[in-house]
Amino acid sequence: MIHMKRGYLLFSVIILLILFGYYSIKIVQNHIFHSNIDKLKYLEIQSLIHLKKYEIIIYSKNDKNAILNYTINDQRFQSSIKSCDFANENNTTTEKYCVVIKAKNEPIRIYKEFTK
To answer: Which of 26, 72, 95, 114 has the fewest CB atoms nearer than 10 Å to its CB?
Structure first.
């Protein structure tokens, strides 16, 4: 009778340890997942801010070289700007700039075209 009580108690303790271990792992995984999402949201917002800076530069400057040589001063992002001039049906040339901003270590990439 005493051996059965000890066996039942040992079995109950093992089951409780397994349950608490399982739920603690789930809680830690959930916390890591949410912190990663917050980091990606932050990087996306930061890249949108850089894109807005490019927009201001493109529409405020008339020097094409100054626009094409502008770079962001942030080590977490890579940016590139290209001129894609094209002729309209009126044979007038329209300036078009293609801007790409991407995070170096994360899957964040934003592309936008600006027509001047």
So the answer is: 26
